[in-house]
Amino acid sequence: HTEQPLGEGKILLDIVPEPARRNVNKLDEKDWEGLLMVGNVPEDKWDELIDSFFDWIDSETPEDARPFGAETDYYSQQQPPYKAKNGPLETIDELLRIKGFTNTVVYGGVPAGADEDTEPMTGIADLLTTYGDDGRVNVNAASKRILMTLPDIEDIIADDIIAEREGLTDTGKMDEDNHFKDLNDFFRRFPDIPRAELEKKISTSSAIYRITSVGYVQ
Length: 218
Prior knowledge:
This protein has helices spanning 29-38, 46-57, 72-75, 103-107, 144-147, 155-166, 183-189, 195-198, and strands at 2-6, 9-17, 22-23, 128-129, 137-138, 202-203, 209-217. It is an alpha/beta fold. The strands form 3 sheets. The protein has a 3-stranded antiparallel sheet, with no helix packed on it. The protein has a two-stranded parallel sheet with strand order 3-4. It is globular and about 55 Å long. The relative contact order is 0.19.
């Protein structure tokens, strides 16, 4: 993140590795459960969301629809009608075309008509990308919420990972750049995290980046 003066205003520039997010096309069912939990999506919606997602991206026929999912026969009855993709998502907004994926599920908020004490969903769009070939998450760049979607990474451990990679001291001040050199370095510093499942889902580098620039005029 950098901020620079520009004429009478300023420009904010963010360069973030795309693998700092989860590749939606590479998620398995257990990944989706972790993602929906972090997004604060009620568990009674999970079966429909997960089944509908995999029905949307697979190449199966309508007869092979999952128990809580939907194929083209469902989408052809919508207004306007359309067909199931039967292929990978190209954008995260495409989730909104899939059965069960409401704007509230994807971007957060309280569902329409919910009780006033209903806890809002935090959304899942900020956790996802459609870029990256292997779906691994860069632990040197991922946010706390994204780290918590990974196996065996809970709230406190996610905080510890961020503090460790940033070289933060007990006083919260930056000590030094302490990013993880490779997976062996990561697991050496966190020996209590089970390696077998997690090492298939993480990396310490990126080849694809997202650049966001915003200009302000005062």
